[in-house]
Amino acid sequence: MIHTLVSAYTPGEQLSLELTPDGKRGFLAEGATIVVLNMAVTPPVEIARHQMPDCQPLALRYFHQAAGEAYLFIAGGALGVWRLTLCSTWFNSPPVLCLADWGDLLVQAPLEYGYLERKRCVDVEILETSTGPVLFALFAASSNPSESSGGPTELRAYTWTSTTATQIAAFTFGSATSPVEVGTSLAVDPA
Predict the structure, then answer these.
(1) pTM value?
(2) How many other β-carbons are positioned within 10 Å of the β-carbon of residue 12?
(3) Which residues pair with 121 in a beta bridge?
(4) 81 falls in which pLDDT band (50, 70, 90)?
């Protein structure tokens, strides 16, 4: 019997890092792997690892609902925005492994399927509003002429619940004629 390696999701280059507001937990993207870190000790200690097949975690944003779950939103490259539901026991003192650490039970999924396949999601931000959180995602167009069918850079806004995301707005930037005009990062003003 001959076996063929189809893909491998090993730790790789460190792509992005996100900290909780209290600075006690960190989330480090190493290739297609998210490493959960206990930052409350020196040096920081790894709590868990979670593989993110088909995702290139270019930016991470932590969000905790006031009376609910904690999430990590991920700008996932060519497959858009991903949401990873975080295990609550990782936030215990000391942190405790959860069932998801022994399998693939964490909820992870792209927020929107089948759109923007030719654009890369390069950044995400979350803004808390009086009607609930709004997620902003920046999809950067390629400045490569052979990939011009992807269209210009686009900023999209979503409302979301634990099961669905709904696009509420989109803004398309002018077509990029040089790499300088291609959007690559995003910031929000909480005010």
Answers:
(1) 0.80
(2) 13
(3) 77, 139
(4) confident
